[in-house]
C-alpha cells in the first residue's frame, strides 16, 4: 500500500520508488475533500518517477467516463460512416444503389399536396436482415388525395436495350405477380422506367423516362413501338387526371 499524508490526502513517495521509465496506475485510499468522513478508493498515475493523484475520481466515475468516451468515439466513426454512405449513394454504380436513386427521384415527382403514400417497399437493409414478403409488390401505392383514388407504381432503371432493341424491364414470374396484384386489389399499376444508355466516347449520357400502364406492358421485354408511346420528361411532376397517371 502506498502511504498517504494524513492531513492533505496526498501520496507520499520515497526517493527510492522513483523510476523515470515507470508508467502505471496504482490504487490508493484517499480522503474525500467534499465529505470529510468518507474515504474513496482512487486511481494514482505513476509517470516518470512522479505520482499524480487523479483527484477525487472514484472507480465508478472512471468507468462511467470510459463508457461515455467510448460511445463518443464510436459516434464519431458512425458519423464518418454516414458521410461515406451519402457519398456512395450519389456516386456508386452499384445496380441496387442506382435503382434506389431512381426510385427516390420518382417519389420526389409526386407532390405531397396531392398524393399520399399508402405503402412503400422496404429497404435492402431491412430485407437483408429479414425479408418482408410485401416487398414483392410494386414499389409504391399512392392515393390521389382529391378523389381518394389509389394506384401502384413500380420503378425500374435500365442502362441499355437488349440485342433485339427491346427494353427488358422484368421477367415472367415478376410480371405475373404484378398482374395478380392488380387483379386482387383492383387498382391500376404503372411501370415507370428510367433508361440511361452508356455514351460513346466523351458524350454525355442521355436519359429517358417512360410511364407505362401495366395493361400495356404485357411482356417482360418491350419493343420501341410500345414503350416510346409513353415517354415523358424525366423531371416533370406526375399528375392524375380522369383515372390515369401522366
Describe this structure in words.
The structure is a single chain. The chain folds into two domains: 1-91, no CATH class; 95-245, Trna Endonuclease, Chain: A, domain 1. It is 29% helix and 33% strand. The protein has five helices and 13 strands. The strands form four sheets. The chain has a six-stranded mixed β-sheet. The N and C termini lie far apart (84 Å).
Question: What tags apply to this protein structure?
Answer:
globular; alpha+beta; 29% helix; 246 residues; 6-stranded mixed sheet; Trna Endonuclease, Chain: A, domain 1
- Rounded to an integer, what's the Rg over CA atoms? 33 Å
Report the β-strand fraction as a percent range: 25-35%
What's the structural domain tally?
Answer: 2
Q: Give the CATH class of the largest domain.
A: Alpha Beta
Number of helices: 5
Strand order of the largest sheet: 4-5-6-8-9-11
The percent of residues in helical segments reads: 25-40%
The secondary structure category is alpha+beta
What is the general shape?
globular
Number of strands: 13
Strand count, sense and closure of the main sheet? Answer: 6 strands, mixed
Mean pLDDT: 76
CATH topology annotation of the largest domain: Trna Endonuclease, Chain: A, domain 1
CATH level-two architecture of the largest domain? 3-Layer(aba) Sandwich
- From the N-terminal CA to the C-terminal CA, the straight-line distance is 84 Å
Order of helices and strands: EEEHHEHEEEHEEEHEEE
Q: Poorly predicted ranges (pLDDT <50, ≥5 residues)?
A: 1-23, 51-57
Describe the structure concisely for a colleague:
By secondary structure, the protein is of the alpha+beta class.
